[in-house]
Amino acid sequence: MRIFVTGACGQLGHDVVNEAASRGYEPIASDITPEYRGADDGSFAVSAPYLPLDITEETAVQNHITELHPDVIIHCGAWTAVDAAEDEENRPKVFAVNAGGTQNIAGAAKSIGAKIVYLSTDYVFNGEGTRPWEADDQCCSPLNIYGQSKLEGELAVRESTDKFFIVRTSWVFGLSGNNFVKTILRVGKSHSQVRVVSDQIGTPTYTPDLARILLDMAETEKYGIYHVTNSETEKDSYISWFDFTEEIYKQAGLDTEVIPVTTSEYGLSKARRPFNSRMDKQKLIREGFTPLPDWKDALHRYLMQIGEIKH
Question: Is residue 311 part of a domain?
Answer without folding.
Answer: no
